[in-house]
Amino acid sequence: MYIAKENTMFTGDSKEPRPHTSFSQIDTYQQCPRKWAFRYVYKLERERLSHYLIFGSAVHTVLARIYAKKMLSNDSTTPEEAVDFWVDDFDKAIDAAEMSIDYGKTGYSDLQTLGMGMVEEFASKPLGVIVVGVEKEFRADIIDPATGEVMDKQMLGYLDALVMAGGELVVHEHKTAARKWSDRKIADDLQASIYLWATNASRLTFNVLMKTKMPRVDRHQTSRTEAEIELALQSVVNGLKGQQAGLFEAKRVGPYGNHCATCEFSRQCENRGPI
After folding, report:
1. How far apart are CA 228 and CA 221, in angstroms?
2. What is the pLDDT of residue 251?
3. Which of 62, 118, 210, 265 could form a Cys-Cys staple with 85, CB 3.0–4.6 A?
């Protein structure tokens, strides 16, 4: 297995960074190569900005503040403080949007209320860990497991939080979801594989804030075997090689259903034809 422990660079390292990819880019390419090309090759402007992106960004900002407070002062954030964070950060995220937001059938007030309940629920239970990093950037060399070739691009990532729990290094990642995550989704999650490979952490915990009427937080722990890491790296390498070869076909259905309806390039894709 090709572990990146010795090749991983965190923020502040002096090495000159190389061109990079990210989990987000690889995930987009696997969802739909054409969507990846529209965004990263042709650099087309988005047709619309989904409220999902704004909402998720604001949740991440609130949780980063909660973890940062724990790291800097070892103090916990009260549920009331978390709600205040949300009111402030959600409005800032909306104000920072560079285009009109597509709320769909959900209005601003509904999202505001939903977010308040979610972060309040998250803050109602202590973190119970030692926080050693928040929104920590890393870069790692990508090595083809089949050939040993070092790819031209490095992997760039941002850990939501890095913590010590039970004497072990653990990555925390924050997500929002409308439905309960399946065991298969957790086991197959590429982001978990990439982040565990890059950090050499013992496990990763997903904090999944559920967008349900009665807010709850599901915490899923996962780890990876050496064989699973190799499969994930091969998937990343295959994606990079597909990008280099100009394989930009449209893919309407992915592992979690049809994503064309929510794609920010759907109309341009229909009008553009083959590329």
Report:
1. 16
2. 87
3. 62
| Number of domains the chain contains | 1
Q: How far is Cα 32 from Cα 239, in angstroms, rounded to an integer? A: 11
Name residues of the chain where pLDDT drops below 70.
1-9, 11-17, 253-257, 271-275
Q: Where are the alpha helices (DSSP H) in 128-188?
A: 183-188
On whether the CB atoms of residues 267 and 235 are closer than 8 A, the answer is no
Beta pairing partners, 160? none
Q: Name the residue range of residue 189's domain.
A: 5-244
| DSSP helix, strand, coil percent of the chain (3-state; round to 5) | 45, 25, 30
**Residue 6, φ and ψ in degrees, nearest 5:** -75, -20
Whether pTM > 0.85 for this model: the answer is yes
Q: Is residue 259 part of a domain?
A: no
Is residue 216 included in any domain, yes or no?
Answer: yes
- 3-state DSSP call for residue 77? coil
CATH classification of the domain holding 90: 3.90.320
Residue 251 included in any domain: no
Does a structural domain hold residue 260?
Answer: no
